[in-house]
Design brief:
about 220 residues, four-stranded antiparallel sheet, seven-stranded mixed sheet, 7 helices, 13 strands, Rossmann fold, alpha+beta
Length: about 220
């Protein structure tokens, strides 16, 4: 079985290194209205429980633990490519054992999270996992909790870069491209493009959604549980 990338961080060292084995490129800075709204929503609140679903970022951990919050990180996209999860689909191909994935990942008990950084994980997850993962996120997020997600538009194209997201300010991100060490291509390939109706349906168990249209072929969505 491959290593599972789940970590809990409390206040303390900012020297935690990213544990994911991705190759990386130079960082790109971009503004994010959705992140600004996310930051504003949690501002002034104490001892929050925050879940970061992206590749581990020392900047994010340092930021939130420095504010007195607990940070859980879990690279569910990398976990979804664990070869041990493959089972026959019945048509000569393989699919993913969803039950096993949910037993081994996002295995939290009760509504414990005040905030979730989903980033663009749904765009890259295997199709069979998208709905179950969002349902699990709904079940572990507190009522009134906030979730930030990014969705690509059709103009992004299938070879859109895949990034590690570092929070550099209230409305500022550093995007670090994640590439294969073998061929230099994006570590994960964009699997689908959601339209607004698809996104609304995906988060139908949540209380509300707010859309922000960015300039770089990405829609930002702030979701309230």
């Amino acid at each position: 079985m491959t290593q599972k990338f789940f970590n809990l961080f409390r206040g303390g060292s900012a020297e935690q290194k990213a544990t994911s084995p991705h190759g990386t490129g130079s960082r790109i800075t971009r503004r994010s209205s959705g992140l600004n709204e996310f930051t504003r929503t949690i501002a002034g609140r104490e001892e929050l429980c925050i879940l970061d679903l992206g590749c581990t970022s020392a900047m994010n951990i340092s930021l939130f633990t420095g504010q007195g919050h607990k940070v859980y990180t879990e690279d569910v996209l990398l976990a979804s490519h664990d070869a041990a999860l493959a089972i026959p689909a019945g048509d000569g191909t393989n699919t993913i054992d969803v039950n096993r994935f949910l037993t081994e990942n996002l295995a939290y008990h009760g509504q414990i999270f005040d905030a979730v950084l989903c980033w663009d994980v749904p765009d890259y997850l295997p199709e069979v996992l998208v709905k179950p993962v969002v349902e699990r996120l709904c079940s572990v997020t507190k009522p009134g909790g906030v979730l930030l997600a990014y969705f690509h538009t059709r103009d992004a194209g299938p070879d859109a870069p895949h990034y590690r997201y570092h929070i550099a300010g209230n409305d500022t991100l550093n995007l670090q491209p994640l590439t294969s060490e073998r061929n230099g291509k994006p570590m994960f390939r964009l699997q689908r493009v959601f339209n607004n109706r698809h996104i609304e349906n995906l988060f139908r168990e949540f209380a509300s959604l707010k859309f922000f249209l960015a300039r770089d072929n990405v829609r930002e969505v702030l979701v309230i549980r």
